[in-house]
């Protein structure tokens, strides 16, 4: 029986497939005295790429050193691109939100419930709609409104907040400002956004109005990593819900809120559990 | 208790909403001795339009004359656009198909099962993949291949077949040729197509390849009325199914086949039951 | 075009079907100067029962008197059982909750968002987990723990709270005590419960453990009206979600929380919009 | 890049978990010159059991001998229960069907489409509804009606047919007779059944009638392995579909047909791809 109490490491690897990769990784872990808890691999027959997520219990007293050694091995010996995390280290998350607060509340409740394998460390907003709730949850609230001094000044303040808090992930929970390419270069961590449509349908502004005009029978929401091209980043998770001619734009907005909060919450959980690997503007999600 | 054996009429109405429309329609039917079996109405608050589907049992011995009288009343007195059908008259359906035969087989099995409130009267194809099955079901099979004589000649032959058979509906069950605007003008009945994506995402050719490239997490299928603008007609029904990075394009094609056949079959059933009303390039589906 | 600003009435009717019911109801409303906004009827061919929901804009200055007159008419002249509500009167809701707070939070956020056509007026709990949040939302919190003095005493206190607040609906948002038949007789308003399984599978205690043992591939949640027979009342709404062998009981609990909160929230909304009619231990939901 | 043309082996293993299992299996394959194409493992934290599906390309000219050697290794050295299949060997399937033919047709069309990794070799029926279609597909049709000579005689004939055809899987595609425990002992291969409800709700006869009486809002279908206890065997796959008060029992039957055929078809495909492992009356499905 396996001891769940030992320190755990999680590695995400990808690179050109060749014989012996699974044997190499599992053999390395076995010889270090580790025990594999989960391992999932994927071979993309089209591109010849190999992807793996492996999670193991370490028997060494120093998991950080073991992580470094594994990275060295998988990079040098196996030719893989490696990302490795210590399970015990909880990632630090900042939420950006504007006046639509449902997705932000969902993340806060997930966190309080213990369902989020990370910690929310700040709420950043160009509005004050979340200020009282942030206080209720004893969370720092940074009110950074859009002003005449311009986007560059605003983003500089945002980046300063994120750096001070050592943030590992930024979540745009219906944050209605477009982040500049410069911001994305400097932020130094992934940014996850929730788009309120089934991308690539209805990219851009007012997707529920677009959906209503087109007369679709399903509406959707899409969580994706943010890239400089608007609404075009790698998709992490999507859901849809049935609508009909009876639904006004207001009904679509209401139904969409449920979709948005669930899809974003699931995407953030998948990311924080180190289940998402980005590859050629797509994701491999080990769920 | 209502006598289910009496002749039934089904009317679809739409026009500008005003007080007394429901009372007018139901009063007219009541005074003719009819009994309403189903009635469903919709008021579009944005445009001020009224939509109704009403199905009633007639006590007159001549439902065709009653239908004409109702149309006269609803048009003249209520200002409605009216479409009216006798339940006993089974619409005649022609299926167009190319080499992908799953959606065509689904319709044939629905029909044989008694689930289709209409009759399939012919299969038209530019391939021979369905020839033996058509014979098995004792159905006329028209092999009209695409030849060097050109699309106009081919479409003239197709139109001739449809006219000879007095067809009420053409169903494109993965028919891989684009119908010309001229064909659509002359065909004289609705044409329903199945598109193998969640429209408006991935319109045009090879949608599963497009979906695979974009890395979406759901694939879909869309049944719609055909209009001269490709993949842009009023949507009748849509469904999606979850996919992952593990799915090759081949897997998407296989999963898509199930979606396509179910979505098309449902759309055809809804149309043949007179449940679909077209309005401003959208549909009102009374289900 | 219809004036949305006029007072609105909503009637739910059911009784034995006969000719002229739709004409009678719509004619009555028309002659009073009312305008039908929505009307939906259902004829149950098996039992010969008629069901209708009709919502209209009144032109009288006294909608309460109009409601009484309509009830008189539909009862006496049409032989219907009638329930009628003024749209402007917001129902008053009390939430009962124990230590699992996700479904309670969902209802509170819906209410704050403006998605709940009623008002939450109190939280009643045998635990204190919701106390701080109730205070944050400026809501009365009644901590009524289960003590040695017994269930009868506890329920008497609960009934007293409900009477003082003139409650129209009690929602059991994961309230883990069984209400006595005596309580249900005296409460004088409907009680909606969320059961954490796809009823009738896994009625009773620890349904996720039961589901895990049976190895089902979908888990569900069921919102239903409470009757003296445990988990047997009329079902309002149900949803399911896919699970696999990878899901531990803990994972089922987490996935179940999302189901529970969404299903309960939808059921409460449907009830408060007067869309649910109870008939022979089943519901007719006009959505 | 991996050569897809080499012979492939697929192994399913389960047994008590311990360190080194993944390394052992992947190392064995690597040292034989094999290349892992897919590998998926699962550790059940509750029971301490390990489950694995591993599929590899063999470089030996004799995959049958390699399979035997692997079985020997995994059984003796790793303490696993092992099932191993050669990808090139297509399992032989017999379909049992009564008068409801939709699920049988679905399997036949899947097979003809090339979506079924096995071969249908016979249809056995107590009715003649499928006789003409069997002939159309050039398939042996065995009409074995239920007669006064009794179930034992009938089952002896069925077993004789199955033995003569060297059948690897029996699929009950709406076969309405209960198979005896004696038959199940002697059949010598798995038997998959489609039950027309979301088990464990509505086990036994006439589940759609049961569902209609209970007033559920979703109906389902369940594919499971047959065991001597009726409707209690390990569940392979389940799906549900929304229904409402508008649906008569006839509508539930129609909607159910789509569910049944899709769920059974998916379960058969999963089984034939060696993705299903039975464990404690549950399944582990590696999909």
The CATH topology assignment of the largest domain in chain A is Rossmann fold
What is the helix/strand order of chain A?
EHEEHEEHEHEHEHEHEEHEE
Strand fraction of chain A equals 25-35%
**Average of pLDDT of chain A:** 94
* Secondary structure tally: strands of chain A: 13
Largest interface: C-D, 33 and 34 residues
The oligomeric state is homotetramer
Instruction: Tell me the structural class of chain A.
Output: alpha/beta
Name the CATH architecture of the largest domain in chain A: 3-Layer(aba) Sandwich
Basic shape of chain A: globular
Q: Count the domains of chain A.
A: 2
Cα-atom radius of gyration of chain A: 21 Å
Amount of helix of chain A = 25-40%
- What name goes with the CATH superfamily of the largest domain in chain A? Formyl transferase, N-terminal domain
The main β sheet of chain A shows up as: 7 strands, mixed
How would you write the strand order of the largest sheet of chain A? Answer: 7-6-5-8-9-10-11
Descriptive labels:
homotetramer, alpha/beta, Rossmann fold, 2 domains, 7-stranded mixed β-sheet, 8 helices, 33% helix, globular
Commentary on this structure:
Four copies of one chain form a homotetramer. In chain A, the strands form three sheets. In chain A, strands 7-6-5-8-9-10-11 form a seven-stranded mixed β-sheet, sandwiched between helices. Helix content of chain A is 33%, strand content 29%. In chain A, strand 12 (276-279) and strand 13 form a beta hairpin. The model of chain A has no long low-confidence stretch (mean pLDDT 94). Chain A is globular. Chain A has helices at residues 21-31, 63-76, 102-113, 131-136, 151-164, 181-187, 207-214, 249-272, and strands at residues 8-16, 35-44, 49-57, 81-86, 92-97, 119-125, 141-143, 169-172, 191-195, 218-225, 235-242, 276-279, 282-285. In chain A, helix 3 (102-113) runs parallel beside helix 8 (249-272). Chain A is an alpha/beta fold and 287 residues long. Chain A has two domains: 8-86, ACT domain (Alpha-Beta Plaits, 2-Layer Sandwich), CATH 3.30.70.260; 92-285, Formyl transferase, N-terminal domain (Rossmann fold). Chains in contact: A-B, A-C, A-D, B-C, B-D, C-D. At the A-C interface, helix 3, helix 4 and helix 8 of A face helix 3, helix 4 and helix 8 of C.
